[in-house]
Design brief:
The structure is a single chain. This protein has about 450 residues and is an alpha+beta fold. Helix content is about 40%, strand content about 20%. It is built from 16 helices and 20 strands. The protein starts with a strand and ends with a helix.
Length: about 450
Amino acid sequence: MGVNVLINGKKNITTEEIAEIGGLKYGILDDSYVLRQGEIGRYTLMYDSSCIGRGFQVAADGQDIELSLPLPNTPHDIEIFYDLIVRLCRKTEARVFMRDEELASVRECDRYIEADKLASVRALEDIASQIEEDKYNSFTIFAAMNPIEIGKEEIDIIGNSLDRFQKLLNLFQTRDVFYAGLKIYQRKDSSLFGVYFVGEDIPTVLPLKPSVYNNELKISDYYCMIPGDNTIPYEDFISNTDAAEKYDSGHLVVCLAEKEINQIADNFAVDFVTNMRVESNHYRSMQIIDSGEDHCEKIERKNLGCDPLAGYNHLAVFMKWAYLKGILAEDLTENSPVLADVLNDSEADIRETLKNDEYIKGSIRLGYFKEDYQDFVREFYAFNKGDEDHYPRCVDIYAEKYFGTEEYNSDKYKDEAYLFVPFNEEYYKGLSQYIDRGWEKYWQKRRMK
């Protein structure tokens, strides 16, 4: 159900120009009807990012412009659809356009808007009626960013109100989540299997029951691929995922940490070709805790007259402390042999290795530490915490004590005094004392629980 419009103007126009005229974002839908933003295809979906509903599709071919508005739709999308038509008619010098194969005029757009809103209300009423009568458990609404499953709970919220329908669609599509689309692969025996990819610490939307929108495709098996390249049968994954919350009537949101990833893999990993159980690959978290490049970027952006490697100062201290404490992961130095050499060499500059090593790539990552101590690293190395129990704050406190409060706050450091503290043995000893205190406090709290 929808409205189709054809504009045949006197001037050629491109899809990019159409989006610019309407002040709209755009993209194309993949096979799972998930938007690939910023791409253009034969049919390009356009939407307003300030109020995301279902959007509408546009196809430009020379002087011909096709627009398709799905119904039911939100009041905002209906209004910007016709606003765009008016603008395009003016731009291309088209006096009339075709609407559902009937000649139409821009002067009648207000009437068309009201007709499409009424049609949308009736469509919502029909959906509600069929769900309440248990003819269907839910309906799939192909929205601008991704499909949304409308069930009884959503219908109760909407209540046949287009405004509430609009708010609900926008709420779903502005959540900070990754909507996993199905990827389909073929085995040598020609059987097809579907895979959903789930990352670490990434809130991911997954269907309660996997399916494919193309009914001609016969999918034999569905899986989730999780970090470590472990393949998990879909039902096993969904049934054994504790860290999940509802997204809509047909989807949930999962967010897995390293420990949960390895637990699921150890119990359910299979070979997707044979579907037989296999020994899982142990996954070590690569979540970035801190990046020296982020700190060095300040040096360039603010034109600071400090050591170009200063952005790696406090990272180097923490890595050396962790090495001497024995909490670095055993395979870290295997992946970065040069790191072991510099950690054992009191004259070597660890910062150079952190910056240039191909494995480390300028960052401290959670997986660099033994699993038993990762919670400490995650908690102690937390940013945006204003006390001495958190390492980034300790770095600033040490800098203030080094320079004195007045100089620390002077304009010459441009609020980045921590980058001007000389990197030497005194710096390591002074800053590592804060890490020692944080370590003791952390384990003391653990013992008290």
